[in-house]
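Support reply, case 0932

Customer input (verbatim):
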Amino acid sequence: MDRAQQLSEFLKTRRARLRPEDVGAGTFGGQRRVPGLRREELALLAGVSVDYYTRLEQGRARNVSPEVLDAVAGALRLDADERAHLRNLAKPTSARKRPSRPQQVGPEMRQALQALGSVPAYIIGRRLDILAWNDLARTLIADFPALPAAERNMARLVFLDDAAKDLYPDWESKARDTVSNLRLDAGRHSDDPQLATLVGELSLASDDFRRLWADHTVRGKTCGRKRFNHPRIGELALDYVAMRAPDDPDMTMMIYSAPPGPEAATTLQLLAGLTTPAVPSTTYSAADLPAEIAL
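Our regenerated output:
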């Protein structure tokens, strides 16, 4: 994936979403032919020359200083995830250019996952690959052991599995969050050929993915509430929290729990009643795969 092109498109889409009144720029007048701020206006707000900002937006600027990136981020009103994405695209580190190795779920993360037997939990890695899960997550989201290894990926499930639109009543929100997470990963690992292949396949197969990918929205996995429509127990709403692995910034454990109130807890108990013990792949990770198909 071309980092300069990603940077260019990201800056253009962030600039397009701003209006003069959004940034208190009442003096910016004249007829507007494009949505959002003009390059000259953004450069003025950031305190850089129009020529320099133009080169930055075109992906032609070299050795951009942290101060300039902070100024541009402030002018664009970027949030924390967007600022991190901008830095990843504009100033990639040498570590990010090293060939990626298959991720391995360490014994501590596996132990924590198994300890969460009363709530759905799974571990997600680079490219939104699903690396490990417990039985409740398998019952709630998908029968991961039954899927081919290459399809154990959240983006593939959301955009290529017809069951996803039934499982997630707020599918558009789930899809947007999924693409936003994948965009953030693309900023950190734009040289990952498997990521480029995944994005290419999803773009060819899904109009929705192409539409959302073009927005260049980025967002990390944090916390919130997700609604599900399970085929056997009906609708349930669960709170979720993302816990980052201490030794791998690209590995996250997603933990779901029942919000306060007896109804959600009862529904979660019904879900647990549907769960049957899985084969040892309950603690599946990429390291368990033969080398030729390891993700």
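We compared this against your earlier run and they match. Two observations from our side: Confidence is low (pLDDT under 50) at residues 279-295. The radius of gyration is 21 Å. Please reopen the case if you see a mismatch on your end.
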